[in-house]
Fold each of these.
Amino acid sequence: MKKDIIYNNIKYTESIRQVTAALVGNPNSGKTTLFNTLTGSNQQVGNWPGVTVERKVGACIREPLLHIVDTPGCYSLEPFTPEEKIASQYLLEGHPDVILNVVDSTNLERSLFLTTQLTELNIPLVVALNMQDEAEAKGITVDAAALSNVFGCTFVPISAAKNKGIDKLLKACLNAAKDISAAPSDRHQSTAERYALIEKAIQRSVKLSERDASALTDKIDKILLNKWLAFPVFAVVMTVVFFVSVGGIGGRLTELIENKLTPLLQLAAQNAFSKTSITWLTSLVCEGVIGGVMSVVSFVPQVTILYGCIALLEGCGYMSRIAFITDRLLHSLGLGGRSFVCMILGCGCSVPAILSTRTIKNVRERNATITLTPFVPCSAKLAVIAFFTANVFDGNALFAVSFYFASIAAIIIGGMLLKLFGRDKDGDTFLMELPQYRLPGIKNVLRQMWQRCKAFLVKAGTVILGASVVLWVLTHFDIHFCLTETQNSMLAQLGKIISPVFSPLGFNDRGCGWQLAVATLSGIAAKETVVTTLQILLPNGIAEAVSPLGAYSFVLYNLLTIPCVAACSASFTEQGDWKKGIRSAGFQIAVAYILSMLVYQLGRLFVT
């Protein structure tokens, strides 16, 4: 006879398996916030089987028996996008023990359509009435008991952002999973019947005060979405972001690491190896390992603060507005707002940005977006921008901002060129909900900052460390593997062969062309290694190795040329044809070379 156990006032048998809850909801319903609140750091990120759309799973912090599976945001179980297809397929074939449906209490008419479909599945259902704090602030009162009576499942009011109502929600999920008989029977309704049910539910459960629920959002949007002010405001916002992250606090912290921490570590290493007669080992550790790795680590504060700012913009709802205002511009290039959403992801890393293009159904538009997305400076390229801004352009954040606008110009020019190659004039219809403005959750912002910082440090301790050691060896040994001067090393010989190619771009305007050429080549492994290579090859600094104009051209070329190996691999895979992948890479190299050459040559004429 099996032994019974009591957990959270619920009786279980000792052999009960872990309860799996499928987290389902519309985009912008607070689903991700709830998932982060429930799982905290107990998360694992991967891909759904057979596809490259991100999958998140996690163990619930408060309820050890509860295992959360976060499905992609969807509006309906009748799939229109790959994300909706994944969510629908998992619910039908994944056999979760309970469905946790997250709805936006401030917009029930939209959110409850999915709920009507979920009630038709033979799976226990619990509905989280999220954003109760925002609903109350807007004068909206929702009767959860009335909704439970209409839909025949449990509705629980919560505020995921403020951690309210979570315990009651978890208890409801465990109760629903335990009481399998509570699962609704099969019934299928037409779209008209669904909306009739929703209307009846709203009439019975929702009360509005005299306050205008959307007044504040409408007033803000009159400015931010104004056809004359939208782009200037966007430019000001991004300038402020870069002044804070690159030229402000982030810049000072980077200088502290470069000028204080790195020399201290190198001095400690020198002292540790001072009693040995192996001079090359001291050089390897001090210059290769510490110098190479710390040259990238020093930019962690800037990267972390930058992505904290981006997380704030996403959390408050402004990023959706940016996609909206750019849709018309991109449409003239044969792209759309969905392409811009992918490019925004490229600010973090080009790989997930390229993978996200699967949401674009039009093949030509998708391939064009894959080709143009690497023009967006990712976090690795930010290290290159920050390095030159600090060491060549006196820390002036305007130069950092200018590279981002140069990238936008490259996307526009590239899009126009691709359109001339026979691309479809009309892409997909772009549908995006503009959420209400809200205060972003600080915990979520801090979590995103930490994840970006962690990813940067992990790469510094793996890829960059390995690249630093290899670069040191190539810099200190000749082709016979004998110690030699840098100018006679294997790396120098390779650099001198390829450096003439980059002379029209100004890489050699002060006699250090082969060092910059080699740095560009090393960036194919990972863009951060551009900085590492320059630190190793130019111990006296970059300021005297190239003119400011040549440096600007160098940074521009490295921003626009082919991305790292991982991003190139994703590009080849997503386009499904190696020929298309090669054409994309060739196009990126050509655009980068031509634009950088124009900047340098026209700049010389202007200076003269």
Amino acid sequence: MPYTAPVEHIRFILEHVVNFSKVAETDRFSEASPDMVDAILNEAGKMCSEVLAPLQTAGDLHPAVLENGVVRTSPGFGDGYKAIAEGGWVGISAQPENGGMGLPITMTSAVNEMMSGACLALQLNPLMTQGQIEALEHHANEDLKAMFLPKLISGEWSGTMNLTEPQAGSDVGALASKAIQNDDGTYAVTGTKIFISWADNDFTENVCHLVLARLPDGAAGTKGISLFMVPKIIPDADGTLGVTNSMKVVSLEHKTGLHGSPTAVMQFDGATGWLVGAEHAGMKAMFTMMNNARLGVGIQGIGAAEGAFQHALAYANERKQGRTPVDDGNGAIIDHADVRRMLLTMKSEIHAARSIALDCAVSLDLANANDDQDARAMAAFLTPIAKAYGTYVGSEVSALGVQVHGGMGYIEETGAAQYARDVRVTEIYEGTNGIQAMDLVTRKMLDGGEMACRLLDEIQGNAEAVRGKFPTMAGAVWDAAENLRETTEWVVSQSDMNERFAGAVPYLKAFARVLGAHFHLKTAMADGGDGPRSHLARFYINRLLPDHAAHLAHARAGSDGLYAISADDLAL
């Protein structure tokens, strides 16, 4: 499916919107010069456009299948993965001593977005491995690092994470998987895991599973859970592959989308595993992987949105239907006002979500480079917003893409519907968007709203600084930030967590709207006020930013109205 990696758009945001230059100024990431960034974006973009994008339709029409216990992947996926691995794109941010490039997470995020726009089903594979690499770097002992990291970073092996069980979804503490220590210091892991993305494939030498399980003395709930590395094929100390482990893919799920990405039920029957981190501290180690993946999933949503937008834009420029009101137009449906509204909505939402995600990545890089706790706190605050908003935009933009196509969008052959089907799960996995919002209004507000207000101060300060040149846009952004500040104070004042939860999702959406407007305003500043990016900023601020007021009203409505209708009454 045709796709052009948005290299110039990403480069513009890095240079003018999210202050990536601060990352390049650190000692750790001094190699991330403008020339290096250009080289990476251009080379990765070429691979995405030329190698991965043609696999999009093949993955949808020819899903991964399970044959006699072996997963057979979609046509061409093996070659596509080989291009990813040989390009070094799995280990962009991995530590150099283990074979990684050691580059900023921001660069990984940019490359992952382009891969997601080209072929989301295949991109999910290296995303899982990248999360596993980070978890091992932070929590594994030196022997485990030496055994697994070089192979994962090179792409010779791939990684997964195994949390969910039939009875333990969002409530991870309800898991039943067990682990018993063997005489040689390894562990025998037994249990059933579901929804395991890329649980197996036929193009990597090994598949390494990070599995949550409970030791015999593990307490109930999440505090008694440990994390284990359980490979498909057991390696010797030098990494040479030996015997097949005691595990199997029981079945593959039949899904709405992402057909090229095998999602499995996994059975572990006393499988050999190694403890990662301390006993009973598995959730801490797994959260390292999950936090990486949450930003990565937000990036997936943005990538899918970009692909859907490009597809819709090409169709709108070609499809002629009815008389159009534009005298100097091309006579295609892009000249109709409502089609133009949809396309501008798509493009402006993508820019806002992309800016939020890359700003989150920049904060992570500054935290890692300088051990900057303020930057770390900012990254933590932005992560649920980046995940939820990025995936929401992915779904909304993909749905608009179908609408732009009209009736043809409902016909699978056009490819428009695939984006909507593929991206929909991103609002669900790695913590549903509702859980992200609950995290925002609780854990991220443990500081009494200090981080939120610090961000609002920055937004208002920037708006005030440019009010002279952009009075209407700057005034709207400043006022919206003030409205958000008042609701933030209300959220913090609620001691009953259910009052916060009732409006958590609209509160997060309001925060994302205001952040998006802030970044659009910065874009207009860099664009000079008269270019296409400035006009897009005016569209977003004038037409989409007002949504924040409705979201904030919803956020402050409390929980009473939600329970005024009983569960029985809902069934009437």
